[in-house]
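[agent] plan:
  1. take the single chain provided in the ticket
  2. run structure prediction with default settings
  3. attach structure tokens to the ticket
  4. add a short note for the reviewer (M.T.)
[agent] executing step 1
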Amino acid sequence: MPRIHSLRSLVFITLSVGAIVVFLVTTAAATFLYERLLHENAREAAHTQAREIALQADKLLAEGWSVDRVRDHLESTASHVREETRLSIHSPEALTGDRMAEGDQNATRADGPLALALETGKARTVTAGRDIRHVIPVPAGAAQPLAIVDFRQSSRVVPLATRLSYISVFVIFAALALLAAAFTASVATRHIQRPVAALQRQVQQINTVKDLTEMDLGQADFGFDELNRVYQPVEALVDRLRHVAVDKDILEFEIRLLSKFIITSDVVKDWREYVQQLLLEINEILPAYALITLFRTDDESYEVDLFWYRTPTPENRQDFINIIRQRIDAQHGEDTVKTDMRVEHFIADPDHDLPALDYTGLELQTKSLILESPRIGGIAGIGVQSTVAQDPTRHMVIDSILTTLINLVGSVKAIYRYTQDLEYYATRDPLTGLYNQRVFWELLGYEVVRAARHEDHFAILMVDLDNFKTINDRYGHAFGDQFLGHLADALHQVTRQGDIVARYGGDEFTLILPEADGEQAWLVASRIQEADTSITAPDGHIIRATCSIGIAVYPDHGKDARELFTVADNVMYRTKRDGKDAIHLPSQDDVAEIFRESGEKSHMVLTALEEQRIVPYFQPIVDLQTGEVPIHEVLMRIETDNKMISAGEFVEVAEGMGIIHRMDYQLVEKAFQAIADQDYRGLVFINMSPKALIVGEFLSKVRQFAAAAGIEPGRVVFELTERDTVKNVTLLEKFAAELKAEGFRFAIDDFGSGFSSFHYIKRLPIDYLKIEGDFVRNMLDDPRDCAMIESMITLARGLGIKTVAEHVEDQAVMEAIRNYGADYAQGFHLGRPSRTLTAALQADAWSPNRQPG
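[agent] step 2 finished; step 3 output follows
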């Protein structure tokens, strides 16, 4: 049905159609009645005329006329009366079969009405369509009539002229009806259009919520009760909109605010600067004088950061502090007033001053949200001071902004704190606070360059605790960690300012002594042995550990960092073999023997490479939610005549020889072939030096090995290690992007052990993050390790990266790391490296109820 777009058209069409329909029905009824009247008149006239003819026939027959003569006389007389009539007079003999048989022309076969009249002697009247037929016996009622009068007449139809006059009258009245409909529609719509036009003008003037509030609809009268009833809900709707509508600039502000909720590395660098910038942008929409953040610290005190839009008066500063204290007091009770509250002020636009505000206005215009318990990052509340806080509509908008801001600022502060911790522990050992192994190597390399430039000496010391395993086994790891911390303090006390002390790993420590020769290094080593390293054990015994110390001096014992470390490490182990608790400064013969042994190891590595004796071992990585083994890590081994040599014994030698990437190729090829032979369908992690990735032929060789073994690239994850530092990270990015496009994945190995990992996670397409095993191994005994692990998992989850905990050595550690939210775990407790790829763990290895052991 076509749509009618105008009320005027609707009224016009409705009235016109109604008038025409009524006129048509009336005309049809009048025509029907008129024709019926004509028919009845014709019937009555035919009956009267038929009777008169019958009487004349009866009279003439009585005078002795024959039937034929009477018929001829009366039929000739009737033919001049009307064209619509037809008269027939039949003798009884003419209606019988005898006369027809003789061929009499006046003989007629008697039809139904004639036969009945002849038989009964009674008159018959028959109507067929427009024809009226009267059959009358003569004389009437005689048993044997002398003649039968058959009179027929057609009833008249309405003449054509009469019908044309009907149509003319219809057209005239239809035109009058259309004019009446148009006039009525115009009057009705004009009455409605006046209030509609007034309403339309008011609606067009609405551009803000304020305009909507000032809009006065009044009591509009549309002239019809039905339309007035329709308009009443519109008035109610406008009234409700006044209370719930929000300015479009407020909505635009919220959208812009959401666009600021992307937390980037720039935000994390200085979260306070980010909040100040946010306050400046808020003031582009809402006049906000201040933004407040509350953080709950570990000692249950509050840290309050007051961010001012512009420079406030000293009175307003103090007033604001009092208001914040009152809000905290109202939220948490009277005791909170006694809690320490440290306040810092920050000004986003210090070049301009804020107008002075009275205390009452300041309090009314301050909207705050204080939580019963701190959320992420320790945030416990947030507030904003704005003149629009008294407006009910904008008050609601500010509520929603505060809820979002409290989560945003808390997350930024948390990630800022976590990042600060990660950056610190990327260079520091979390247990002792000393430099870690990565930094030691960097500083050692720097010192070699410095000493060579100035033709100077320096020394390194390798310090190893004697019998530390016995202390650990007897008193536990917690006491062992306490003892290591005590030794670290002692090392700091006996070294000079500028000397570098690092924890190399386990119970091994390293020292770099700039501008020191062999004699000075011996003196420092002697002070270490004489230092008070005693500590009271849990059982009350005084425990004092001895140290074995190896010394190497530049350039006497080596020309580069590797040579110096090799010498110091070897002589330290010789000291332990010779009885421990001693210092060893190597002679030239000692150095020659050490390098000869190192040469033998180099020969062993080169021979293994040439003879294809690089062997892949596979260690399972377990899904902490399901207990399944979807991943294996490939580990490199060298097969000799009687044993397997682990990578830790030859990797540094291979790197020094520059052949580690060739060994990686051989490992990858054999690992892929073993995966195909054992029909393993899971993922495989492959340790890979970043330098190996940027070798020109790496990508083509990996494609070749994967295609030959039928392994999809998506099942291969390359672990990036920091054993070789890549200075050109941009080039590494390029090759990593090419591999990622092929479908290969990436993981960071030993995350947290060095700062290069942060560059990798920022610039490379990382899929997995493997948490450094030192943090995992001691997490049950050191809350700092737990904090570090939680920070790493939080950071990875925020970046959409899966986490793998390394060095899970017992059930308790596995349960703890799973509770912190790690995705996968790897360690001897879950499976040792072997040549066989494990499909699933044994039930007792996974059971959450299994006791540590």
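[agent] step 4 note for reviewer: Confidence is low (pLDDT under 50) at residues 840-844, 847-853.
[agent] ticket updated
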